[in-house]
Each structure stands twice: as structure tokens, then as C-alpha cells.
UniProtKB/TrEMBL annotation:
Gene3D superfamilies: Transcription factor, T-box. GO terms for cellular component: chromatin; nucleus. Residues 1-67, 505-527 are annotated as: Disordered. It is found in: Nucleus. Residues 38-47 have a biased composition (Basic and acidic residues). GO terms for biological process: CD8-positive, alpha-beta T cell differentiation involved in immune response; endodermal cell fate specification; mesoderm formation; positive regulation of DNA-templated transcription. GO terms for molecular function: DNA-binding transcription factor activity, RNA polymerase II-specific; RNA polymerase II cis-regulatory region sequence-specific DNA binding. Residues 152-337 form the T-box domain. This is Eomesodermin homolog b. It comes from Sander lucioperca. The keyword rRNA processing does not apply. The keyword Cytoplasm does not apply. It comes from the Eukaryota.
Length: 616
DNA sequence: ACGCTCGCATCAGGTGGGAAACGG
DNA sequence: CCGTTTCCCACCTGATGCGAGCGT
């Protein structure tokens, strides 16, 4: 897929690549750290652990550990002058005047007691570069008062967008986010009750404008923002076991620029166009009635993922972002050129065979086909498609009891975002440690993730979360994206030409000759790219490598991706024999490796699944 | 006769594109 | 005039309702 080509340069380890990426219109020179950061992030897991900032902790308390890889771009704007954005953000200042009242938050779970219980200045340790945020961090531990651990489930997709500076459409009637926020949480008390909500705050004090193919600041942000800034998860409050059971998806969160008092405004987050925002996840321990649990040691924990930053727009500015949206959002399939239900490029019999089986499986075994019930499926990344992982997800999830699915907002069982840190090979722990090493907020001397353990050990990097966790993958990806393994891919193969007309020169997918994107010219850079692609579905690919370690090596996966990309390109130009061979070989491997065997991956997967709950 | 499953049609909602409208 | 916003459009997805077919 050409889209992956773009990742090629993006994840080149060379500085040239980083510099080249910085030329992207998205971030431009405004986020010089992004390039290097993502170069290494690309090797990271598709999830991302961030330790909480705990309300009761002193912001000045030094922490021995630096988990958060916060970069300046990941900081949250905390203007000193604006009372709305105090240096130490807290609920009382950021939330609407009424706080979490039903009228403002759209929920009735939060009583005034909750507001009063908030400790100003400690709930939102600011990433102001002062290090205060970092100081709030503590190592996740077990036992009472344990700090929750939050994983951004669809981090690869977020990263893809973030590389180009994510844009989110805001409309009067409200527009869903894409990618939407989806988290996995660990470390909560199984029986305690929590409310989970997302808050969107200004990420910086600037007004932004897309000029000259890049985002540039244009004056100061309008601090007079009003309206709801919080979206409380519909299932709040609920038990820790409930929150940890599945992904917590905010797929129905809507963004609007309508400050009016519309009937639905309480369920939408009001933003201002051309302002940069940073979503935050908050976990509040409450009583069964939804009132904050005063007796709890840890009341509120906040999590910020820099890659979730976005600029609110009323119309897309960067065509790269537009294309990413079209490519990844199922609801935008209509804008995919040459979209079809099956790929015309799949002339190989083995190919067709594989895909047919996959499609059959997904159709017959779907559990929760609802788009809203399958938030993960909304955000399948190309890497997943090419590695055909959704199929595995489907297989795995078929073994899960239906009652594990909840309401529409988060009917997604633990999937590739599974938290389970336990793995046989300790890979996940390595990943976990890496997260801890991601160290440093804006003040850290380095904003890069230390992914050294992954570099040079590709296979390990692909299994950072442990294979077992993947076996909990849901079928949602397939159900909501029923053609994800094939048509999407085929669409990609056949549609690029049309895309090109809108592609900006900086678009990494552009087929134009590029020293950093050419496969033949710079094969060394192909691997990083594909690695990232695989990583995008990192957790997805894990079950494959686990169940079929020999049938389909990761190298083959690379070849597959590469070959498929080439093949897709071949629709425009002559295809190479090599690519065909690789494609078919891989497809054949996929066919012969019986990835559809339900028992193979499920046994371990389910074991891991349950171990997760028995070993919180 | 009753209940269940399946397929089809319809509907609601989400998507980006593009033109028109708006506003500084 | 130019940048931004709004509205409408075609297209897509999934949910829902209905009837036919089948088994008990």
C-alpha cells in the first residue's frame, strides 16, 4: 500500500528521514520533535502506557521514574494569565462553571460532592515544561491505591494522523472524532466504582492557520472558549472490573463549534476552529451512586497522550489528513476511489483462496457487527489489513462469551489493546519498561522514546504486549469492517491513482520519486516503514507470529507488505516478478498456516485473558 | 401453531467534497 | 479579496423491521 510508503520515510531511522518528514505540511517546523519522536515511536507498540497523574499527589513530589514521553507538542497550554487555563489545570477551572453537573456534562452521576472534592491544581498536573507533571508520576503498583495504567488502543492510527498534525472536523451538529479515543485501563480495583470521562483542553496558546502546506501559528488563541469541554463515558460510573474488561471507546464523542445551548450540546465538546486541542482521559473513583469516593486514596487520575492532539477545523486543510481519514474511516469509504467489494488485483488463486476464507469467516462468525459496537473496527490500519490480522481477531473473539459485550459505546472486548502485561517471553514487560523509559515531559532532555530494546530485534518489537493478549482480539474489526482484509486492500491498490490528484507533494504516499520513499532506491528504509506498518497492527500481528511462527516469518510479512505495495503500484506501472512472488508466497503461507484455526490461538489467548482478571 | 433464522428493503446516521455564504 | 464557515450532495455503513422459510 502506498500509504505505507509514506511511513517508510517517516520511520526511517536516519536523520534525513526525520528532516524530510518535518517538511510535511502537517507539523512543519512547529514540532521539530515529532520527527524523531515518531521515528522511534513507530517501533513502539500500538499502545502506549502512561502513568496517571494523581490528584492527591503533590505536584512537586519528585518521582523516581519518568514514564511520560511528553514532548513540547504534547504539552497542554496553561496560560498564566487566563484563569480559564491556570498553570495547574484542574476541573474547577477547565470545566464549565457548573462542573460535572448534569447540565454541563450531560450526566447525572456527578454530584456536587464530586466537584467539591476536586483538589484544584492537582488533578491536571500541567505539562508545562516545568517538570511538575513528571514529578507526579509514580510507578504502577499493585494493591490498594494502585495507580491505573492506561493504554491508548489505537495509537498507531493516532500516530499516523499526528505525523501530519491531526485535524478534527467540527460542525454545528457535531462531528465524531476520527480516530476516536479508545483506551484500555488496568490497575483499577475490580470492585471499586469509577467514572471515566474525556476532557479536551487547549494544547497551546496559539491560533493556527494552514499556510504554505504547513500549520503555522497565527495570533493568540481565543481564550474565551465556552461550552462543554467534557464527555463522560456513557457507562460511567461502573466498576473497575467493568472498565478493565474491554476497551473504553469514546467513538460517539462529538466535536462541535456550536456554543449555543442546543439539545445535544451537553453530549458534545465545544471547540474553536483552528485551535489546537489535547484530549485527556480522567478516571475518577466514585461511590456506587456516582459520587466521588472520598475514602479512596486515589480520586482522580488523568492521562494525556500527545498523539491525541489535534487542530479543530471546519474543513480539512491538509490533504494528507483528508486522505488518511478516507483511507481509515469506514464511513468515508464512498470517497475511496475504485472502491469495490473485492480486489480486482487478486488474481492469484492462493490469494483468492485466503481472502475467501477470511471473508467467509468474518461473515459467519461475526458477533457484534454494529459500528458503534466495534469502535476498534473503525480504526483498522493498513498494516492490519495487509497482515490480515483481523481474521485472527475474529477467530479469537468467537470464543468469547457474548455477554462480554456491553453497550454500544464500548462493546469491545480486550483486543489488541489488551493490557495484559504478562507474556511468556517478557516482551510486554520490555514494552512496559520502554514506556517507563519514554521518559520525560517537555523538560526532559530527550523527548524520544527509548526503544532501543526493539531496534535490531524486529520480532521482539512486534510482540511487545505479549501474544496472549491478542488472542482476545475482537471480531469487531471484521464485522464493522467486513471487507477490511480485502476490499480495503484492493481499494488501496486500485485507488491510489485517484488519490494522487489530491495528494500534496509532501504526502508520503505520493508515488513521485522520493529518495526516502522509493523501495528500490533505498531498501534499507523499507524495513523501518514496514515495521511501522506492522507495528500499526502490532498487537494484531502478534497472534500470527505466535501461532505461526514458522509459517510466516516477519520477514515474510515485510515482503508481503512490500510486495503488495508494489503490486498496487503495478496497477499503474509494470509490476515486478519479485513482488508477485512475495505476495503469493505470503498468501500461500497464510493459507497453509491455518490462521483460522480457532483452537490454536484461542487457548493461549483465553488463558491470558483470564489471567488478566485473576491477576489484576 | 409457534419460534427461530435468514435475507431483503428501508431508514438513520456518518463521511468528505464542493459550492455558496459569511465575515474581517 | 481572501479565509473561513455553512449547507447540500452522493455515497457508505449499520440498525431495524418485515416476511419467507424451516424446524420443533
Amino acid at each position: 500500500m502506498l500509504g505505507g510508503e509514506g511511513e517508510n520515510s517517516t520511520f526511517s531511522s536516519t536523520k534525513e528521514a526525520a528532516d524530510d518528514r518535518r517538511k510535511s505540511p502537517a507539523v512543519g517546523g512547529d514540532d521539530p520533535t515529532a520527527a524523531s519522536r515518531y521515528t522511534e515511536h513507530g517501533m513502539d507498540a500500538d499502545r502506549y502506557y502512561i502513568p496517571p497523574t494523581v490528584s492527591k499527589q503533590s505536584p512537586e513530589t519528585p518521582s523516581p521514574c519518568s514514564f511520560i514521553p511528553y514532548t513540547p507538542s504534547g504539552t497542554v497550554y496553561t496560560p498564566s494569565s487566563a484563569g480559564r487555563y491556570p498553570s495547574s489545570l484542574h476541573l474547577g477551572s477547565v470545566l464549565p462553571p457548573a462542573g460535572f453537573s448534569p447540565s454541563t456534562a450531560g450526566r447525572s452521576h456527578f454530584s456536587p460532592a464530586y466537584q467539591l472534592a476536586q483538589s484544584p491544581g492537582c488533578i491536571y498536573p500541567p505539562y508545562t515544561g516545568s517538570g511538575s507533571a513528571l514529578s507526579n508520576l509514580t510507578l504502577p503498583t499493585a494493591g490498594p491505591g494502585v495507580r491505573a495504567q492506561v493504554y491508548l488502543c489505537n495509537r498507531p492510527l493516532w500516530l499516523k494522523f499526528h505525523r501530519h498534525q491531526t485535524e478534527m472536523i467540527i460542525t454545528k451538529q457535531g462531528r465524531r472524532m476520527f480516530p476516536f479515543l479508545s483506551f484500555n485501563i488496568a490497575g483499577l480495583s475490580l470492585t471499586a466504582h469509577y467514572s471515566v470521562f474525556v476532557e479536551v483542553v487547549l494544547a497551546d496558546p496559539n491560533h493556527w492557520r494552514f499556510q504554505g502546506g504547513k500549520w503555522v501559528t497565527c495570533g493568540k488563541a481565543d481564550n474565551s472558549s465556552q461550552g462543554n469541554k467534557v464527555y463522560i463515558h456513557p457507562e460511567s460510573p461502573n466498576t473497575g472490573a467493568h472498565w478493565m474488561r474491554q476497551e473504553i471507546s469514546f467513538s460517539k464523542l462529538k466535536l462541535t463549534n456550536n456554543k449555543g445551548t442546543g439539545h445535544n450540546t451537553s453530549q458534545m465538546i465545544v471547540l474553536q476552529s483552528l485551535h489546537k486541542y489535547q484530549p485527556r482521559l480522567h478516571i475518577v473513583e466514585v461511590t456506587e451512586d456516582g459520587v466521588e469516593d472520598i475514602s479512596s486514596d486515589v480520586k482522580t487520575q488523568s492521562f494525556t497522550f500527545p498523539e491525541n492532539q489535534f487542530i479543530a477545523v471546519t474543513a480539512y486543510q491538509n490533504t494528507d489528513i483528508t486522505q488518511l481519514k478516507i483511507d481509515h474511516n469506514p464511513f468515508a469509504k464512498g470517497f475511496r476511489d475504485n472502491y469495490d467489494s473485492h480486489s480486482p488485483s487478486l488474481t492469484s488463486s492462493s490469494y483468492v483462496h485466503v481472502f475467501s476464507r477470511m471473508y467467509t469467516a468474518q461473515e459467519n462468525d461475526r458477533l457484534t457487527p454494529s459500528p458503534t459496537d466495534s469502535p476498534r473496527a473503525h480504526q483498522i490500519v493498513p498494516g492490519a489489513r495487509y497482515t490480515m490480522q483481523p481474521l485472527f481477531q475474529d477467530q479469537f473473539v468467537n470464543n468469547l462469551p457474548q455477554n462480554r459485550f456491553y453497550n454500544s459505546e464500548r462493546a469491545v472486548p480486550q483486543t489488541n489493546c489488551l493490557l495484559s502485561p504478562q507474556t511468556e517471553d517478557g516482551a510486554s514487560q520490555r514494552w512496559f519498561v520502554t514506556s517507563m523509559q519514554q521518559g520525560g515531559n517537555g523538560t526532559s532532555t530527550t523527548n524520544k522514546l527509548d526503544l532501543t530494546p526493539y531496534e535490531g530485534e524486529y520480532s521482539s518489537s512486534l510482540l511487545p504486549y505479549g501474544i496472549k493478549s491478542l488472542s482476545m482480539q475482537t471480531s469487531h474489526a471484521l464485522s464493522y469492517y467486513p471487507d477490511s482484509p480485502f476490499p480495503t486492500m484492493s481499494a488501496g491498490w486500485g485507488s491510489r491513482a485517484a488519490y494522487q490528484r489530491k495528494i500534496t507533494p509532501s504526502l508520503p504516499w505520493s508515488p513521485r520519486p522520493s529518495p526516502t520513499t522509493g523501495f528500490s532506491e533505498d531498501s534499507n528504509k523499507v524495513k523501518p516503514q514496514i515495521e511501522e506498518e506492522v507495528n500499526d497492527s502490532g498487537s494484531l500481528i502478534s497472534p500470527w507470529t505466535e501461532t505461526q511462527p514458522s509459517a510466516l516469518s516477519l520477514d515474510n510479512a515485510h515482503s508481503y507488505s512490500t510486495a503488495c505495495k508494489r503490486r498496487r503500484l503495478s496497477l499503474i506501472g509494470p509490476s515486478t516478478e519479485d513482488s508477485d512472488i512475495k505476495c503469493e508466497d505470503l498468501a500461500s503461507a497464510a493459507t497453509n498456516s491455518s490462521p483460522y484455526s480457532k483452537e490454536a490461538p484461542s487457548s493461549k489467548g483465553m488463558a491470558a485473558y483470564y489471567s488478566f482478571y485473576t491477576n489484576p
